[in-house]
Amino acid sequence: xxxxxxxxxxxxxxxxxxxxxxxxxxxxxxxxxxxxxxxxxxxxxxxxxxxxxxxxxxxxxxxxxxxxxxxxxxxxxxxxxxxxxxxxxxxxxxxxxxxxxxxxxxxxxxxxxxxxxxxxxxxxxxxxxxxxxxxxxxxxxxxxxxxxxxxxxxxxxxxxxxxxxxxxxxxxxxxxxxxxxxxxxxxxxxxxxxxxxxxxxxxxxxxxxxxxxxxxxxxxxxxxxxxxxxxxxxxxxxxxxxxxxxxxxxxxxxxxxxxxxxxxxxxxxxxxxxxxxxxxxxxxxxxxxxxxxxxxxxxxxxxxxxxxxxxxxxxxxxxxxxxx
Length: 324
Fold this sequence. Notes:
- This protein is of the alpha+beta class.
- It has three domains: 11-65, no CATH class; 69-191, no CATH class; 207-311, no CATH class.
- It has six helices and 19 strands.
- Helix 1 (67-88) packs parallel to helix 3.
- The longest helix is centred in the N-terminal third of the chain and has 22 residues, at 67-88.
- Mean pLDDT is 87; it is low at 314-324.
C-alpha cells in the first residue's frame, strides 16, 4: 500500500549534484554560489540556508521534476554509493529490521554474500533499483527505494521465483535521505528474510523455547506430581508438542511423561502423567498451571514451532482422561 501523494512545497530535499557527485546542503555555499544542479533535471538549484526552515535545495527556476522522482533518485544513489564504498573496503554494512515473518527484530550484514552492486541492472524482465551480486554472479538480495509506490510487480515476482531477499527502504523526506548516508545500522522498513530457523513442516519461524517444570497436585488422586510445559513466543505447549530431546530434558527433571491414545482423533500423543495413579493432564488443562510454571526458571530447550505445536495436541474431549 502506497503512502499519500506529497506536494512539492512539503518536501525539502537536502541533496543536489555538484561536479557529478551528490552533496549535502551543509557542504556548500548559500544561494547560487553552491554551483549545484538538480540530480534529475540537471537544472541549476540554489541552497536555501535561512534561519527558519530546514536547509535544502530549490530550483533556481521552476523545474518540472516531481519531489517523488528526486527523492527516489537521490535515495537510490546514496545507497549505491554507501554499498559500493563498503564493498571496496570489504566492510560489513549492518541493517536492522522488524521481521514480517516473526514478531522479532533482526540485525545482519546486508553485504554478507555480496561482491558487487549495480544500479538498475536488467534481470529477467525487471530492473530493480539496486542489485547485489554474489561470487557466482547471482543476486542474494535486491534493494528497492520506496517513496509513494510499492516495488514493481515484476521485481516482486522475480524475487519470489528465484528466492532472492528484497530489502526495501522508505524515503519520505530529507531526513530519510540523510539516514541512508549516515545511519548505522541502516533501518529498512521491510526485508524478505527471517533469520530464525524455519519449521520443516509448515515453513514458519522457529522460536527459542524454555522448558518449565512445576510441582502440581494430581487432579485425580491429589498426590504431588511434576508437569512440564514449554514457553516460546509468548505461548505455551505441553509434552504433546515436545521433541525427543525436549522430552528427555523434562524426564531428567523428574517429570513422568507417558503416551496416551485419543479415541476421538484416533492418535497417540505424550502427556504429563501422575506417577502414582497414572492419570494424565492433557493440553487443554495446562493453562491451569500457567502461573506456577511462569514463576519457575526455564531451561533452554532448543527451538520449537508454536504453530505446529498448537495443532499437535489432543482434542479437548479426550484431555484429562486416562486410558482404560
